[in-house]
Design goal:
single chain, mainly alpha, three-stranded antiparallel beta sheet, 7 helices, globular
């Protein structure tokens, strides 16, 4: 049964289509939303939300700054995004690279026998796992540094 579901997934969606869809989503997000270091705007209107974790505990959560950071990265403001949360830059660039890899897989499958791309799929899965580990490590390291800095500043 597992083999059948895996086979169905592979024939149901082409890697190139998924990669193109990822790029389209990023372009749409860039067109509709923007941010500065303090606020997020969607179609010119400011979103007024806050981190529930920060409100409850007075400390940032591991994902604090990710939305603003991703939007700043999409608009080319890498320095501001890195200051907010370095994981936002890693996330955005990772999605772009993953989309490019999926398009490459689709081109490779058309140029060669689709069954010969098994090794390419395995490498892509390994790279995705390594990327997820890197993203988690960057997010966790940034969070620990932020929490330790806040604690040192407040003297808790």
């Amino acid at each position: 049964m597992r083999r059948l579901s895996r086979q169905t997934f592979r024939t149901g969606a082409t890697p190139g289509g998924v990669g193109a869809l990822l790029v389209a989503q990023l372009l749409l997000l860039r067109a509709l939303a923007s941010a500065d270091t303090e606020r997020v705007f969607v179609m010119g209107r400011e979103l007024r939300w806050g981190c529930l974790f920060r409100r409850a505990f007075g400390l940032p959560c591991p994902a604090c700054g990710m939305t603003r950071g991703v939007l700043l990265t999409l608009h080319g403001h890498f320095g501001d995004a890195l200051r907010l949360n370095p994981a936002a830059v890693v996330l955005t660039l990772g999605v772009v690279l993953f989309a490019a890899a999926l398009v490459f897989v689709a081109v490779h499958q058309r140029a060669h026998d689709p069954r010969s791309s098994g090794r390419l799929h395995a490498r892509l899965r390994l790279a995705a796992r390594a990327y997820a580990g890197l993203l988690f490590a960057v997010m966790l390291a940034h969070w620990v540094i932020e929490v330790m800095t806040r604690i040192a500043e407040t003297g808790r």
